[in-house]
Amino acid sequence: MTITTIYYSYSGVTRGVAEKVHAACGGKLVEVTPVAPYSHLSVFLSGARRAKKGSCDVIEPATIDVTGADVIVLGTPVWASHPPPPVNGAVQALAGCSGKTVVLFATCVGQPRGTLPLIAEALAAKEVRVTREFVFTKNDVSDPARIGALIEAVKSADGNTDGDA
To answer: What is the mean pLDDT of residues 95-114?
Structure first.
């Protein structure tokens, strides 16, 4: 099984989880970065507002080809209870994703609220199926059992399972 782990991380928390998944599962690791990076101030002034509107950032890489992947892992922070614009851009940038399976995770301070359903809806429009969703709070990211559950979900995911999202 070939795995592609895609993530955006502003503070480094989401990156840490994505790197743990990649270290345990292998495959390809893709960090999404906005072409116009956010500063600490712009995250709150424009990033959160744009997240609420469902805006997409122009990102690098401009295209994320997952044709060779059996499973995609997508990691996101939560901005104002929504996916951040770089993650929305990443979903739009997916190529070769139809029929793929995704394990989705979010890192946040509190509750992700609409973040995961919004991403799942955008992925469904690209004919991608979310099989599992995980939420990691500040304490969860250092909990080996919680990270282990994500890793096991990735290892057991494939395009033919009927797992619950």
So the answer is: 93
The predicted model scores a pTM of 0.93
Q: Which residues pair with 76 in a beta bridge?
A: 106
pLDDT tens figures, 137-165: 988 999 999 999 999 999 998 754 443 33
Q: How far apart are CA 89 and CA 38, in angstroms?
A: 14
The per-residue DSSP string of the chain comes to: --EEEEE--SSSHHHHHHHHHHHHH-SEEEE-EESSPPPHHHIIIIIHHHHHHT----EESS-EE-TT-SEEEEEEE-BTTB--HHHHHHHHHEES-TT-EEEEEEE-SS--TTHHHHHHHHHHHTT-EEEEEEEE-TTGGG-HHHHHHHHHHHHH--TT-----
* Largest distance between two CA atoms of the chain: 44
pLDDT band of residue 102 (cuts 50, 70, 90) is very high
Supply 127's token pair: 């004919």
The whole-angstrom separation of Cα 83 and Cα 5 is 17
